[in-house]
Amino acid sequence: MPQSFKNAWRWLVGASAAAMLIASITPAANADVITLCVKPSGQIVGINVPCKTNKQIQLTWNIPGPAGDQGMQGVTGPTGAAGEAGLTGTTGGIGPVGPTGPTGAMGLTGLGGSQGLEGPVGPTGASGAQGKTGPTGSQGDVGAAGPTGPTGAMGLTGPVGAQGAVGNVGPSGSLGPVGFTGPGGVQGPVGIAGPTGNTGPSGPTGPTGSQGLAGIPGINGKSGDNVSTLTGGTLGDVIGADAAIQLTGSTTSAAPLYMAPGNGADFVQGTLQVPTPGGIASNLQVQLWAPKFPGGPGTGNAYTFVVCVNSTCDPTTPGVSCTVTDPASTCTDDFATTGDEVTFNPGDAISIVAFNSAGDSSVVNVTWSLDYALGPL
Description:
Blueprint: H1 3-24, E1 33-38, E2 44-47, E3 57-62, E4 227-233, H2 236-242, E5 257-259, E6 265-266, E7 274-275, E8 279-289, E9 302-309, E10 321-325, E11 330-333, H3 335-338, E12 342-344, E13 349-358, E14 365-374
């Protein structure tokens, strides 16, 4: 490189260094003119000191004056190439929540307005004219029939009506079937004694025998003139079956069958019980038929029969009752053996209740009889 180029380069370097040095000097230390002594090698050897002319170069600067006016905007240079994206910085922590400001004081409630005065009542308006009567509405539909009321209590038996006139004899009906043979009648009264025979000759008097033991007193019998026999039953295999009044296994004490003298049988006691003039009933006898011949209730089964006073049908208070237990087909409550009897006051009703009292009894028909003594005995 030519020597002149090397010296020029060094001066530039020295000048640049001097400029940076001047920039570092505080304004209070500056003079109006700054002089530097620079070696040919570019080394600064002194500031504001005399220079050796043969070996040093003197550079002089003036202190900068006041700033000049703003120059014109230079032409915008070309946009440089985009630099590489810098690394993503770490996310900063969430700052603390600022304190809540104080709640403002509530304003005062305004005063209420005063109550206004009540206005006067207006005058009553005149009554309107009477309107015309509207047409009669059509007949409404007949309402549904109300429920049937409960059955009233049975009324007292009315007095016996006067004997009606004898009616004309009706035509003879056809001959009905022969009925079952009824139970044997009670023993008839003793016949009138025959005339006394001629007295025979007296025999020789025998020796006097020893005194015999006194006999046990017998039970007083009922007067034959006041006793009648009541009978009844389930009306046989034809009528009884058609009317569904035979005894069956489903005829229980909770749903028994009732019978009454000459009045057939029914499952409702009030429809057939017969009023009495007062008296005493005893000697109940019962015969079962299965269905046309005597027959019992079946193996291990039984039917019970009890005489009822009104609605009381209890054989223990005291009472008259008997039970047909297989293989028997009859039962009896004999007064001479048991002393059982039932007393009826005038107007009391009589009936007999029957029910299955053991097992699943067979279907049977019933006939029965009962002694009834009228009035006081």
